[in-house]
Predict the 3D structure of the following.
Amino acid sequence: MVFGALRASALSACAVGALAVFVGAAQAQTSRSLTQVERDGRAETARAERLRAQSREARTEIAALNARLVESGERRAEAEAAATAAEQRLETLRAQMNVDAAAQTRARQALESALIAAAFAERRGGLSGMRAGLFARAAAPTFSAAQRQRGQAVETSRRLEAAVLEEQQILADAQAAIDAERGELETLTARRRVAQAALDRDANAAERRARTLASEARNLRELAQRAAAASRRSSSGGSSTVPAAWSAPAEGRIVRGYGVRENGAPPTQGALVRTRSRAQVVSPAAGEVAYAGPFRSYGQVLILNMDGGYAVVLTGMASVGVRVGDAVRAGQPIGEMPDSDMTAPDLYVEVRRGGSPIDPGRWLSARGLIDQGSVRAG
């Protein structure tokens, strides 16, 4: 009993000025959340732009690498063409060297034959031998000159062969260097492609996040507007009684009435209704949800804007089943009380209009809720 009284007293004390506090805090909380969401959205947008710029830079680098690969391929083709030409020159040169060597051999053999013939002729003596010797001696310089000429041609061909072989080695080294460069370019290009794909994925994710945050910011702005509208509607003048057609928000009994003082606390501005464990909470009338969810240490809080400029504050629930901006009908389930085996749960009910609280006792009593001897403030 002592625990229940203390709990009821705490709920009653927390309820003083509940609507103004809840709506004002909801607006402030929404403003803080909106500021954070908008800041996060700008950060994600800026991040997406940076990633897109880096992706464009990577794409430019890839294009430059591809151009270098093309240029490398062209140089490789030129080197191959030069190597082919050198091979053809070497083949031609070696064929000519074979011809010149054969001619040199024939010239040497002719000179040797002439000298031998002249020697034999001189031994035989006679006019014919003399003539043969004279012819051989006369032909010897010609054969010797031909032999020297063929020898020089062979030597020239050998020097050309060495030059062509050196050229081929240079071309082979150039081709190896081009191939190594091409391998490096291909590896670097593949890496940049992977990096660009990652940048595009991250940019897409950042853009999706920015769109989500923008949508969330729009929702939070709408929430702030609804909270402001709730504050304006609750400050409008009107009747000081609750409409008789309203339904009771929950089945139970009134354990603390309107205006009760306890333990020096200010008078309550609403009623405390003790319900059954896990009792359902319904909307008293048609209206719109201005606030729904946990708030500070008060637990789950619902603020309903009702037709006619009324506002209803409900606290003490374990869960709520509606969201801000939802339209609710009279009698529609909107929440559920806690599941408690030790102490029956209490639902705080406050009604306001024209900026002032309204005693909900007559309305709740008319709907079958019994007021168990609450003491009013003097």
About this structure: The domain at 237-371 is CATH 2.70.70.10 (Glucose Permease (Domain IIA)). The two ends are 25 Å apart (CA to CA). Residues 1-18, 373-378 have pLDDT under 50 and may be disordered.
